[in-house]
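Support request from a user on the community tier.

User writes: "When I paste my structure tokens into the form, the page sometimes reloads and wipes my input. The last time it worked, I copied everything first. Here is what I submitted, just in case something in the input itself triggers the reload:"
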């Protein structure tokens, strides 16, 4: 294997940043294994990557299930014989003021954004340990560094992604690398999950200036492409223009 032929598993690859990352890493010569719930999209994307000369496969994945995540990682491992990188990218962002008490949406954010990442670590770490090397790229957010109104729970989940990633980094010397990529506003379907009218209105203005998803994919590709002795821990990427 060269630095350009890694076996890379990507969660949330059916749209936005995950989809762009799959395209980019495949174009860089890596083999990509794609997970999300919308398999029609994964099938289309895998086909597109194959048509362009790349290597891609997919499997339905719900990151909120530890069992499902284990099956996903096992299937990726069976497909490519290795798991060099797991990009924990799947996430949801149904923003609302805390006062609105949308407890179900809080739970969904915790389940996907926090438990999903933990399930990814639980599934892939033993495989990486057995290989003697591996790399987690966890997608957080600028919301992992600051809290804004309507985003308390979402930001809490992203603070958690940073905390978990830093803990994993400290505890896993010897071949296991951990990177956190934190995008600012990026073009994707993420804001579609907002049901609260106050949050939706606030987001329309906030999201007026956005990075293309390919720019975040480029940042992830940078972290992935460092030589084995280099561990990029945190990258924050924002649109240069201000809203
Ligand atoms: P999208 O909504 O376009 O993509 C989210 C992805 O997550 C989809 O592929 C979706 O697939 C997947 N997903 C959601 N729930 C689950 C689940 N239970 N199991 C498996 N996959 C799931 O948004 P983005 O591309 O923007 O989001 C990607 C990551 O980037 C998220 O972690 C988000 O928090 C983060 N981010 C995004 C920013 C932005 O402005 N866009 C800014 C900062 C961070 P499916 O529905 O098919 O399962």
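"...and here is what came back when it finally went through:"
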């Amino acid at each position: 294997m060269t630095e350009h032929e890694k076996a890379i598993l990507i969660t949330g690859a059916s749209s936005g940043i995950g989809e762009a990352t799959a395209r980019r890493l495949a174009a860089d010569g890596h083999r990509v294994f794609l997970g999300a719930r919308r398999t029609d999209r994964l099938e289309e994307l895998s086909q597109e990557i194959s048509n362009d000369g790349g290597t891609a496969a997919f499997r339905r994945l719900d990151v909120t299930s530890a069992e499902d995540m284990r099956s996903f990682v096992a299937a990726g491992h069976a497909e490519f014989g290795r798991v060099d990188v797991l990009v924990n990218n799947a996430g949801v962002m149904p923003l609302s003021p805390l006062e609105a008490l949308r407890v179900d949406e809080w739970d969904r954010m915790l389940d996907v954004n926090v438990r999903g990442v933990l399930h990814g670590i639980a599934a892939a770490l033993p495989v990486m340990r057995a290989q003697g090397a591996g790399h987690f790229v966890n997608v957080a957010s600028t919301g992992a560094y600051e809290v804004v109104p309507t985003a308390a729970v979402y930001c809490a989940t992203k603070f958690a992604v940073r905390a978990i990633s830093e803990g994993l980094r400290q505890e896993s010397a010897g071949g296991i690398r951990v990177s956190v990529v934190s995008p600012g506003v990026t073009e994707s379907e993420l804001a579609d999950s907002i049901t609260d009218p106050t949050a939706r209105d606030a987001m329309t203005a906030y999201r007026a200036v956005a990075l293309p998803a390919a720019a975040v994919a480029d940042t992830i590709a940078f972290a992935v492409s460092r030589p084995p002795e280099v561990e990029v821990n945190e990258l924050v990427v924002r649109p240069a223009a201000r809203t």
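Agent notes: The reload is a front-end session timeout and is unrelated to the input. Residues 103-131 form the longest helix (29 residues). Residues 72 and 78 are 10 Å apart (CA to CA). Escalated to web team.
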